[in-house]
């Protein structure tokens, strides 16, 4: 479980073959811009996998290095061998993809081995630059990477909110943006079974060659934080639009209780909101009806309202005397299945008794599966200058 929750990064190298170099009129800048865009889109597609594709290398073959006649097993084997013997000794990487412009119809748009990420000999794939739309090529890149991450093709029972899903086995003119439920399940099984270690290694931001993209969840050169898009950002002290820390003093957590909780403010040095803090326990609150306890002002009346509704009030004092009985409806605490009666001074720290406003009955909340629902909350005022602590009514000055 710890492995599944750990942040994951794929140190990724893209190799552009000579055919693609010639396709774009030998213009390396055009190719770089296109590859950066393809990888960035593929990254958004892989977000559901909680893995970040870090582009640490881009090699453009201005001369023929491998003879790629088709996207087939023979070419894949040649590229695997080239990566192992030529690329890895000079550029460490977790995975590499060769983009070619063979563009032969009737052959594969891409090819990759299943469940091989981090392997020296075949953690790689080949894809075609088969469409002018970068999103279409990005979908093929994500598809082949999906194979490397343990995914097979989707079958009829697999689905995703978009259509088609990324691991669909076939060509569709619509861009696939999402992995199916089957793909994500296969990916998790692969991670648990194989636990590839290379993806736990976080690359240095200085190793990433793509221009920084604010909103891709990865802190790159010139960024202080990156919490995704403004719509997705869960970081209270990171400005999602600028990828900079919010200024010191910006409120990141409002006070949940006007009297007993305190608002938290960003420090200007971190994307995280400081630890929740509150007023000192024992401070008088709600016009002296209660005392602050862990950021709240618990009172008997408010607990009755929470349980039974706005027309409820705390019952008269004589109702609480029943807590000396020590039965299943009136007691202070349970020990080894036994109901322990309250001492006379502690009766307002056991079962909570409520009543309808202006009525005289004693009402309890008696839910079999929730035995603590009907109990007076810790920190509740039980007498003047006293609060409930461990089902006893004790001096507020010594309770905390």
UniProtKB/TrEMBL annotation:
<feature type="binding site">
    <location>
        <position position="143"/>
    </location>
    <ligand>
        <name>Zn(2+)</name>
    </ligand>
</feature>
<dbReference type="Pfam" id="PF01421">
    <property type="entry name" value="Reprolysin"/>
</dbReference>
<feature type="domain" description="Peptidase M12B">
    <location>
        <begin position="8"/>
        <end position="203"/>
    </location>
</feature>
<keyword id="KW-0479">Metal-binding</keyword>
<feature type="disulfide bond">
    <location>
        <begin position="158"/>
        <end position="182"/>
    </location>
</feature>
<dbReference type="InterPro" id="IPR024079">
    <property type="entry name" value="MetalloPept_cat_dom_sf"/>
</dbReference>
<dbReference type="InterPro" id="IPR001590">
    <property type="entry name" value="Peptidase_M12B"/>
</dbReference>
<feature type="binding site">
    <location>
        <position position="147"/>
    </location>
    <ligand>
        <name>Zn(2+)</name>
    </ligand>
</feature>
<keyword id="KW-0964">Secreted</keyword>
<dbReference type="GO" id="GO:0005886">
    <property type="term" value="C:plasma membrane"/>
</dbReference>
<keyword id="KW-1015">Disulfide bond</keyword>
<dbReference type="GO" id="GO:0004222">
    <property type="term" value="F:metalloendopeptidase activity"/>
</dbReference>
<dbReference type="GO" id="GO:0006508">
    <property type="term" value="P:proteolysis"/>
</dbReference>
<dbReference type="GO" id="GO:0005576">
    <property type="term" value="C:extracellular region"/>
</dbReference>
<feature type="disulfide bond">
    <location>
        <begin position="118"/>
        <end position="198"/>
    </location>
</feature>
<dbReference type="InterPro" id="IPR036436">
    <property type="entry name" value="Disintegrin_dom_sf"/>
</dbReference>
<dbReference type="Pfam" id="PF08516">
    <property type="entry name" value="ADAM_CR"/>
</dbReference>
<dbReference type="InterPro" id="IPR001762">
    <property type="entry name" value="Disintegrin_dom"/>
</dbReference>
<feature type="binding site">
    <location>
        <position position="153"/>
    </location>
    <ligand>
        <name>Zn(2+)</name>
    </ligand>
</feature>
<keyword id="KW-0800">Toxin</keyword>
<feature type="active site">
    <location>
        <position position="144"/>
    </location>
</feature>
<dbReference type="GO" id="GO:0090729">
    <property type="term" value="F:toxin activity"/>
</dbReference>
<keyword id="KW-0862">Zinc</keyword>
<keyword id="KW-0378">Hydrolase</keyword>
<protein>
    <submittedName>
        <fullName>Metalloproteinase</fullName>
    </submittedName>
</protein>
<feature type="disulfide bond">
    <location>
        <begin position="160"/>
        <end position="165"/>
    </location>
</feature>
<dbReference type="InterPro" id="IPR006586">
    <property type="entry name" value="ADAM_Cys-rich"/>
</dbReference>
<feature type="domain" description="Disintegrin">
    <location>
        <begin position="211"/>
        <end position="281"/>
    </location>
</feature>
<dbReference type="GO" id="GO:0046872">
    <property type="term" value="F:metal ion binding"/>
</dbReference>
<dbReference type="InterPro" id="IPR034027">
    <property type="entry name" value="Reprolysin_adamalysin"/>
</dbReference>
């Amino acid at each position: 479980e710890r492995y599944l929750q750990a942040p994951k990064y794929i140190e990724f190298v893209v190799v552009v073959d000579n055919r693609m170099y010639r396709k774009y009129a030998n213009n390396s800048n055009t190719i770089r811009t296109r590859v950066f865009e393809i990888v960035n889109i593929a990254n958004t597609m892989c977000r559901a996998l909680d893995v970040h594709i870090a582009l640490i290398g881009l090699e453009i073959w201005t001369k023929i290095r491998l003879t790629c006649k088709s996207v087939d097993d023979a070419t894949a084997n040649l590229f695997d061998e080239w990566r192992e013997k030529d690329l890895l000794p000079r550029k460490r990487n977790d995975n590499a993809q060769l983009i070619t412009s063979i563009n032969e119809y009737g052959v594969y748009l891409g090819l990759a081995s299943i469940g091989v990420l981090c392997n020296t000999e075949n953690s790689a794939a080949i894809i075609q630059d088969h469409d002018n739309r970068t999103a279409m090529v990005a979908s093929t890149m994500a598809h082949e990477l999906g194979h490397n991450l343990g995914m097979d093709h989707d079958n009829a029972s697999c689905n995703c909110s978009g259509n088609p899903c990324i691991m669909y086995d076939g060509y569709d003119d619509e861009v696939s943006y999402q992995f199916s439920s089957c793909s994500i399940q296969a990916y998790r099984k692969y991670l648990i079974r194989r636990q590839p270690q290379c993806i736990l290694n976080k690359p240095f931001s200085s190793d990433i060659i793509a221009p920084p993209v604010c909103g891709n969840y990865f802190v790159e050169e010139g960024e202080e934080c990156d919490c995704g898009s403004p719509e997705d950002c869960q970081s209270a002290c990171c400005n999602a639009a600028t990828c900079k820390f919010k200024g010191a003093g910006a409120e990141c957590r409002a006070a949940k209780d006007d009297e007993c909780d305190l608002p938290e403010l960003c420090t200007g040095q971190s994307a995280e909101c400081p630890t929740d803090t509150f007023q000192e326990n024992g401070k008088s609150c709600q016009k002296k009806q209660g005392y602050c306890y862990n950021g709240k002002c618990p009172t008997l009346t408010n607990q009755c309202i929470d349980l039974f509704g706005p027309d409820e009030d705390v019952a008269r004092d004589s109702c609480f005397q029943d807590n000396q009985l020590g039965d299943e409806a009136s007691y202070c605490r349970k020990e080894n299945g036994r109901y322990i009666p309250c001492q006379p001074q502690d009766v307002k720290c056991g079962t909570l008794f409520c009543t309808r406003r202006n009525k005289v009955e004693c009402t309890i909340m008696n839910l079999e599966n929730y035995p603590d629902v009907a109990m007076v909350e810790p920190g509740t005022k039980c007498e003047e200058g006293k609060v409930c602590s461990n089902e006893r009514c004790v001096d507020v000055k010594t309770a905390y």
